[in-house]
């Protein structure tokens, strides 16, 4: 009898979905090596990556679109305004960057969110 199958008078319980067959990792060390090989030449941020989950289920997850930004606050060392930029990337490749320089945090919030929402709407319309 297989170790992961428990037979009982009221039913059978299969733990972890069965024993590994050919190609399935037999332990987490092997899974990590397979995962690293599958992700060779992929960027950790920006591209979907292969990753083993519990029970050695294999996922290919990640974002196609990424918004990344940094804004420096008004300080004597940075300047009198909130300034910085937003970069939009698709699968790890930067496709657009916009700089911002705003007097108040509210102004920055409104301008950045408007810009990102506008970009999202353009992208959605292209994909329809």
Q: Enumerate how many helices there are, as a single number.
A: 2
Low-pLDDT segments: none
Which strand-content bin applies to the residues? 25-35%
Shape: elongated
Number of domains: 2
Through-space gap between termini: 53 Å
Topology as H/E string?
EEHEEEEEH
Mean pLDDT score = 86
Strand order of the largest sheet: 5-6-7
Q: Share of helix among residues?
A: 25-40%
**Rg measurement, Å:** 24 Å
**Count of β-strands:** 7
**Helix/strand structural class:** alpha+beta
Q: What composes the largest sheet?
A: 3 strands, antiparallel
Walk me through the structure:
It is elongated and about 75 Å long. The relative contact order is 0.10. The chain starts with a strand and ends with a helix. The strands form three sheets. A three-stranded antiparallel sheet has the order 5-6-7, with helices on one face. The protein folds into two domains: 5-61, no CATH class; 66-127. The mean pLDDT is 86. The protein has two helices and seven strands. The chain has 128 residues and is an alpha+beta fold.
Question: Which terms would index this structure?
Answer:
128 residues, elongated, 2 domains, 2 helices, single chain, alpha+beta
Brief rundown of the structure:
The chain is α+β, with helices and mostly antiparallel strands and 128 residues long. The chain has two helices and seven strands, in the order ββαβββββα.
């Amino acid at each position: 009898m297989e170790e992961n199958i428990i037979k009982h008078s009221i039913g059978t319980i299969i733990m972890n979905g069965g024993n590994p067959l050919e190609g399935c990792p037999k332990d987490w060390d092997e899974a990590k090596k397979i995962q690293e090989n599958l992700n060779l030449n992929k960027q950790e941020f920006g591209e979907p990556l292969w990753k083993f989950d519990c029970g050695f289920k294999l996922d290919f997850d990640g974002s196609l679109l990424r918004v990344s930004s940094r804004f420096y606050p008004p300080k004597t060392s940075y300047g009198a305004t909130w300034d910085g930029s937003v970069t939009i990337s698709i699968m790890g490749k930067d496709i657009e960057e916009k700089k911002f320089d705003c007097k108040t945090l509210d102004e920055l919030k409104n301008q950045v969110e408007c810009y990102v929402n506008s970009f999202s709407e353009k992208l959605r319309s292209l994909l329809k």
